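To close the chapter, one final illustration. This time we ask the reader to focus less on the individual chains and more on the assembly as a whole: which components sit near each other, and how the overall shape emerges from the parts.
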Amino acid sequence: MNLSELPTPALVLDVARVRRNAERMQTRVEQMCARLRPHIKTHKCVEVARLQTSARSPALTVSTLAEARWFAARGFTDLTYAVPIEPGKFAAAIELARECERLALITDDADISAQLNAEARAENVKLDLFLKVDCGYHRCGVEPETPEAFEIPRRIADASHLRFAGILTHAGHSYHSRSLEELRSLARHERDVMVEFAAALRGADIAVPVVSIGSTPTISTVEHLEGVDEARPGNYIFFDAFQATLGSCRFEDCALTVLASVVHRDRTRRKVVIDAGAIALSKDRGAVDADPACGYGRVLDPEGLDLNLRVSSLSQEHGIIDALDDALFDQLKVGTRLRILANHSCLTAAQHPHYNVLEAGRIVDRWQIQRGW
Amino acid sequence: MNLSELPTPALVLDVARVRRNAERMQTRVEQMCARLRPHIKTHKCVEVARLQTSARSPALTVSTLAEARWFAARGFTDLTYAVPIEPGKFAAAIELARECERLALITDDADISAQLNAEARAENVKLDLFLKVDCGYHRCGVEPETPEAFEIPRRIADASHLRFAGILTHAGHSYHSRSLEELRSLARHERDVMVEFAAALRGADIAVPVVSIGSTPTISTVEHLEGVDEARPGNYIFFDAFQATLGSCRFEDCALTVLASVVHRDRTRRKVVIDAGAIALSKDRGAVDADPACGYGRVLDPEGLDLNLRVSSLSQEHGIIDALDDALFDQLKVGTRLRILANHSCLTAAQHPHYNVLEAGRIVDRWQIQRGW
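The assembled structure is written out below.
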């Protein structure tokens, strides 16, 4: 099947770019003497996970227990669930931990580590638990200078049914960088904060088995990873318009597009409407700090050529593309196919049931996306 | 099962409110002597469609061919697919039209009506086709004063394998109203434009079987529907924070919430993080014109009491609630359950695999949501 035969809207994955992105990150992290534990929240797909892990080290990071169950059942049994655990998920996590070689959880809350230990004791399992650290993003995590940053790991290490897995952070604030220089500085900071904190913990006689960091912008731009054991980037496998605007990649590295059809044209307003709306694209605005006009995605032709247009607004099943010049307007009839380069590939992929796998101009396969919780 | 036992995040549907919203709209439209053809894009769920249609008139509007197939296979065979048809969907639409009592399509393009007629002739079927009219929203549709507004219906009526079904509009610009008065004025305008245009077509000897209008804000507030045959509101079945802010409903009419758990708390920043993020809630901003601080949803306690807080920002699996006072912060431990009243219920529902049906404080059922295209 080729792109003109695919019903629209449809998610299209350029598998040559996925392979290239996978190899480049694998090489980069290995050269920096760290281990790659990619975050699969970007793709939620077993076939993509196989492309981005080596057979000898199929370690993954997940964002939901549904992802953990799905991947564990398909041979990926070394997992980190990287959202802070809460009591409503203890039973499901313990059930899953029994089936895994290792399912590590994360927390930044002293009460939770105590409650989890009690539950693990009652269930007669021993659980791996990371301390989530705030390296400046201020979403979750303890700040390294605070008493609790020492108290929680000590409690975990002393607990009868927990193993202190190490310290883990995510420099999500790197997504708000306005320049490559700012991004590189944040990447250095993410690493330095964690390496210094690990040294402080070790100085306080707390063993730190793993120092884990990661975001695609910082791992793509950091100069070295000395003192870091593990990197957890996710988005790099597809990249997107946001990452290209930030400087983590080039536009030609972006692997994920949504194929759409023109359903309406308006000569007076020089606009067309496509059948990819808020559900097919997601309403993520992308890199608004760096590019206020980013809209809801960049418009490409079916061969991937950038037409220098954006999807300017979205309703549920309609996307609006305006500011067309005469020549382009005349080409875009109802039924014309376009490809929309996602602003944020993680959110766009999660809107679809499967990838249509594009290789050498043909759709060669369909890969399932595991959504839900 | 009660709300404290449901794994989070989870979509919760208050079925008593759904029934009340369904009955109120049914009565309202019947009293105005029009027929209700609800738009099921809001819920994509057969059980909800049964609650909102009478057994003698199970007519629906759909936004995707996947919805059309799903509902047709479950007894709803009088359907209008209310996104302009494009050639890539002709074959699927014709296949489905054969299985339906009536599947009406819409267009605003003269070339498309000719191409569709040729395809219908080749397939030996006769298709119902509406003219999509722009009543001021300027998303899709022909403007009633233009030559094509008369030429397209005439071509459809004269085509060998098409039936001219009538004229159809959607006053989507009603969602940008800043006051109830402005909304009522738009509602009058939507109706008047269509009634006058139908008269003009009839004056030009073009029979207009059906005048179809509809949006939840306008149908909820219009004074009468004289000259209108059919109303197609959709959102009213759940309503949401957007509609309540606009004045289409009261907050206590809103039936859809997302149950979430606190996963992180930060005393310094007076904020908590919940496990409902951009995927569980959607990134729809809601009624930003009328309420710039609307955020990504209103925060309720498990019983539905409004805590007067908003979800202020979202990442993939994290939602941030800030500006907490001391008393509330002390109550919100990791694991505490909250319910988020969606800004835009259509987009939030489409993020989930099923509804957890809440009745008299208990989860009594699970209803499937038919997503995709």
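Chain B has two domains: 3-10+250-368, 15-237. The two ends of chain B are 32 Å apart (CA to CA). With these observations in hand, you are ready for the problems at the end of the chapter.
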